[in-house]
Design brief:
It holds the Pfam family ZnuA. The protein is an alpha/beta fold. The protein has ten helices and eight strands. The chain is elongated. The chain binds zinc ion. Zinc ion (ZN) is lined by residues 132, 134, 139-140, 204-206, 226.
Length: 308
């Protein structure tokens, strides 16, 4: 009888050994945005199961979380957010999750903005009711592709803390991703090099990081302040600037009406180009690298047509 038990035990142990790599359950990560989700996937590969909350084609400042988003968080092992005023709604959700580790200050709560050299920092305190006004610094930092180095760095560290056995895999995935990114950045810089310093108008102040990286010059915005629609006097000012500076292109946001960009275009002859600020907002940008492929191509093509 003892012999039989030994055999059963040995089979069970073998079964366990054989099973463990296959049965390893991916870490459940919830991010606020699709851009962060794409970068978590780049680092975590098949060892993570990532979902994001904000809808990529929607204006982030009008986003309202749903009840199902709280359910997603209940089973999350790590949460990753943009921070600043971009996803203020997230802290309410993480509180609802009932898991202190996933809440601000918790060990499984990553606010990526803490590792980014921010632009446009002003000393304004923010509350959820303040909306998307860029008070504490411009939050659109993922739109500088070089910032992906710091973003993936904090993500890899957080994943390795939860799953130390996979830390080498996370770092290897990250380095492979960054090597591809570096080549891509050089390619994007070549594509945009002829347009350095050309004056541009943008709808929302989404692109200061992109502009700095590629030496683009965004001189004004259709929104006089982030989230505020333009007044007639602001439009008059824009038209004057566009004529004085010979602005060839107006950058439109995917989720805004094109009424004002069209009006500016009709009055000045400038082209309107729609850039995409988040992964997944259109089928052509399924991941972080394709987001820049798309935007750089769109911008270079529009600027090329205007023969600046
Ligand atoms: Zn913004």
């Amino acid at each position: 009888m003892m012999g039989l038990w030994r055999v059963v035990l040995a089979v069970l142990l073998l079964w366990n050994c054989w099973q463990s790599p296959v049965a390893a359950v991916p870490l459940k990560v919830v991010t606020t945005t699709s851009d962060l989700a794409s970068l978590v996937t780049a680092v975590g590969g098949d060892r993570v199961n990532v979902s994001s909350i904000a809808l990529p084609a929607q204006d982030p400042h009008t986003f309202e979380p749903r009840l199902t988003d709280v359910q997603q968080l209940r089973s999350a092992q790590l949460v990753v957010k943009i921070g600043l005023d971009h996803d203020l709604w997230f802290d309410v959700l993480t509180q609802e999750s009932g898991n202190p580790a996933l809440q601000r200050g918790g060990e499984r709560y990553v606010d990526v903005s803490t590792v980014i050299p921010l632009l446009e920092v002003r000393s304004v305190s923010l509350a959820p009711s303040d909306g998307h006004n860029h008070g504490a610094g411009n939050p659109h930092y993922w739109l500088d592709p070089v910032n992906a180095d710091a973003i993936t760095g904090i993500i890899a560290a957080a994943l390795a803390q939860i799953d130390p056995d996979s830390s080498k895999t996370y770092e290897a995935n990250r380095l492979a991703f960054l090597a591809t990114l570096e080549q891509k950045v050089a390619e994007w810089q070549r594509q945009l090099a002829p347009y350095q310093g050309v004056p541009l108008i943008a709808y929302h102040n989404s692109y200061p990081y992109l502009a700095r990286r590629f030496r683009l010059r965004i001189i004004d915005f259709i929104e006089p302040r982030p989230g505020i629609p333009p007044s007639p006097s602001h439009l008059t000012k824009l038209l004057r600037e566009m004529k004085d500076e010979h602005v060839p292109v107006v950058i439109q946001e995917l989720y805004e009406s094109d009424r004002v960009p069209r009006l500016l275009s009709n009055r000045t002859g400038a082209e309107v180009v729609t850039l995409v600020s988040s992964v997944g907002a259109i089928p052509e940008v399924p991941d972080y690298l394709s987001l820049f492929d798309y935007n750089v191509h769109a911008l270079a093509t529009a600027l090329g047509r205007t023969k600046v």
